[in-house]
Amino acid sequence: MFKEENLSKTIIVVPILFIILTASIITFIHIKQADSKFKNDSKKLEKTFLNEEKERLVTILDSINSYVKYKKLTSLNILKDKVKDKIDFANTILTESYNNSIGIESSEAIQINILSSLSQLNSKDKGKYFLYGYSKNRNSFNSKNISLKDNINKDFHVQIDEVLHKKNTSFIFNKETVLRDKKLVELNKISYLKKFESLNLVLGYSEYLEDFEVDTKKEILKRLNLMKLQKNSFIFTLDDKLNVIQDTSNNFKNISYETIQTNKNMISSLFDYAKLSKIDLIEDEYKYFWNKIDKNNYTLDVFSYIDTWDWLIGININIKNIDKSIEGIIGINESKRNEIIEYSIKTALIFIFISSFLSYFISIKITNMLNQYKESIENQKSALRNINATLEVKVEEKTKELEVLNNKLKQKFDSEVQKNRHKDELLQVQSKIASMGEMIGNIAHQWRQPLSTISTIASGNCVKIDFDFINNNDMKNDFTKIVECTKHLSDTIEDFRNFFMENKKIEEFDLRELIDKNLILVGSTLQNNYIKVIQNFSSVKIYGVKNELLQATINIINNAKDILLLKEEKQRYIIIDIFQDEKNAYLIIKDSGGGIPKSIENKIFEPYFSTKDQSIGTGIGLHMTKEIINNSMKGEIFVSNEKFYIENKTHFGACFKLVFPLVFPSN
Q1: Helix or strand or coil: residue 131?
Q2: Among 281, 278, 362, 358, which residue's Cα sits nearest to residue 312?
Q3: What pLDDT digit, counting tens, does each position of 451-476 carry?
Q4: What integer pLDDT is reported at residue 646 of this predicted model?
Q5: Is the pLDDT higher at 248 or at 421?
Q6: Phi, psi (5° rounding) for residue 406?
Q7: What are phi and psi of 178, to 5 degrees?
Q8: 575 to each of 284, 502, 530, how far by Cα in Å?
Q9: How far apart, in whole angstroms, are the C-alpha atoms of residue 298 and residue 317?
């Protein structure tokens, strides 16, 4: 158990310990946050550095791509200039030879000299010179004329003929099948032609585009080899089979990239990248591959696809000791982190000292106040002991008085309960008597027509006997009708007798059959007063006291009848609906009597409340109806005013909604 003498020590020590603990936790959290921020900033710096390296390599690849595209776009013009320069050079030699030999040698000798000069030029170049003669008269070529080992085909002959009809010089493009590496291949050829009219010759020079493209590729690869990058990076070029055709490091040329790169996923990705780029289905212009060697070293490979020749140009960079690359910025951040930690510790110590000092003086003050309260409480306890001794005597006296009063109240309560029970019995008797009065009237209506029929048959037979018109068949038929009428009178008596039987038995019955019997009892009265009953019935089984529900529904229908008799309208309606859902059965009785005034809507179920004259209304019918629905049927009854339509005419009246549970409560 806690000792009181330790309370003052606890009040002093606990707050100080709490302050130290709180300050330590806050300082620890602050230091952890600073350290976490330092690590996150270091990671961000590392990521930024790597992204900058990536962007730097992309910039280099952009310049290479631009250079390759430029060379490809200008290669044809360069080739044209080259071919044209060859012809211009050859034409200069031809003109000089012609001018030196004219008048001295024959035309045939001049042509031989020209062929000799051109042959020497051909031996030094991939292109070929050719020389053809043509007839001025026909302005067409002579296929038997001079040639420099260049076989002219028929289509090319036609192209030359068509072009030189119109101008003296022209370029011609055509395809030609040649033997390359022991295979016949179709190559594209460009030729430049120029007339030399003095000797009726056409001078031409041709070169294959594919040969010039090979030279262009070699020039580009040579240019790439000359590009200087950092010591830890190099440029390399792969063909469509991933063979290395160029690298600035001179370590991997003419070997497969698959033998260099051990990452099989990277090789597979490169093949996919090349295939998709070739058919323009790739979204990214560049392909990146990061390879982490260890915690502080990376390699980055960036590739770009050159669709012109199915090349993959790549740059590899080995990023070593990344921490050294960003150690300047990290050093600044680490210094800031250490400053924050040092400041946090100093602040925490100052806070602990000041708070502990204040806590000590406040604790002393609180201890003194508690001691004063303790003395005051002891004094009050002493006074309470004295008061308690006096109160015990008074409480005992009051307890006896309360017991006497309680016995009197219990006797009075039992007396009032008996009175209320007697009052309820009187209400039930009065309700039954009122119902009996209604039923006697209904019996009179039910019997009037059968008795009238019996009287008519009897008087008719008397007349027939007097005039001797009677026969046995007529007599038999009349007696049969009399028997039917008497049976109807007997059934009516039986129905009314069952209505007045005291039967409190809870049983299952069909709500539809009960309402049918109800309408048999009051049907004649309604019919004689021109009240039409509209029935919307479905068979619904419920539990309860059947005779009491019959009495309750007759009360509602009789009230509707009394209201309708006050109306002078020719169309008087009572509508009865029976239906059910998953839990409840519903009986709805509506009339066209104009409804219940709002001022009395909440009073109609009170005992002895009636809107009728005292001579014809007791005010207990609806009260007993509600009691029967609530107690004998365990249901509920609601009343409201509603509009409804019959035969395209609007009617307004009271609506009684009776709700019965499909499963009767066990209690």
Answers
A1: strand
A2: 278
A3: 756 776 677 778 777 777 777 787 77
A4: 87
A5: 248
A6: -65, -40
A7: -135, 165
A8: 79, 29, 14
A9: 8
- Classify 41 as helix, strand or coil: helix
C-alpha separations of 531 from 387, 519, 552, 575, 652 in Å: 81, 12, 20, 11, 15
Distances (CA, A) of 623 to 84, 316, 334, 573, 610: 124, 100, 90, 24, 10
* Torsion region of 139: left, alpha or beta (phi above 0 gives left; psi -120 to 50 gives alpha): left
Look at residue 420 and tell me whether its pLDDT is greater than 70: no
Tell me how far apart the 2 most distant CA atoms of the chain are, in Å. 181
pLDDT in tens, 20-32: 888 788 877 877 7
SS3 179: strand
Whether this prediction's pTM lies above 0.85 is answered by no
Number of helices and strands (H, E) in the chain? 12, 17
The structure tokens 């991997």 sit at 252
What sign results for the dihedral spanned by CA atoms 512, 515, 521, 527?
negative
Tens-digit pLDDT profile for residues 284-338: 678 878 777 776 677 788 888 887 778 888 888 877 655 555 555 555 566 766 7
Contact 239, 226 (CB under 8 A): no
CB distance 300 to 287 below 8 Å: no
pLDDT one-digit tens code per residue, 389-407: 777 777 777 777 777 887 8
DSSP state of 105: B
Phi, psi at residue 437, to the nearest 5°? -60, -45
CA distance 511 to 44: 82
Distance from C-alpha of 300 to C-alpha of 592, rounded to nearest angstrom: 93
CB contact set of 453 (below 8 Å; sequence gap of 6+): 481, 485
229 pLDDT tier (thresholds 50, 70, 90): confident
* Confidence label for 636 from pLDDT (cuts 50, 70 and 90): very high
Is residue 130's pLDDT more than 90?
A: no
Q: Are 580 and 511 in contact (CB under 8 A)?
A: no
Contact 528, 561 (CB under 8 A): no
Q: Residue 125 has what pLDDT?
A: 63
- CA separation for the pair 486, 493 (Å, rounded): 11
Handedness of CA 618, 622, 624, 627 (dihedral sign): negative
Q: What is the pLDDT of residues 174-209, one digit of tens each?
A: 888 888 778 888 888 888 888 877 777 888 888 888
Q: Which parts of 103-200 are beta strand (E)?
A: 128-135, 140-142, 169-180, 183-196
CB neighbours of 489 closer than 8 A, spacing ≥ 6? Answer: 447, 450, 451
User: Which domains are present in the chain?
Assistant: 228-325 (3.30.450.20), 501-661 (3.30.565.10)
Sign of the CA dihedral with 348 first, then 350, 354, and 359 last: positive
472, two tokens? 């046995």
Tokens of 55: 């962007």
For residue 228, give both structure tokens: 């200087």
Of residues 596 and 137, which shows the higher confidence score? 596
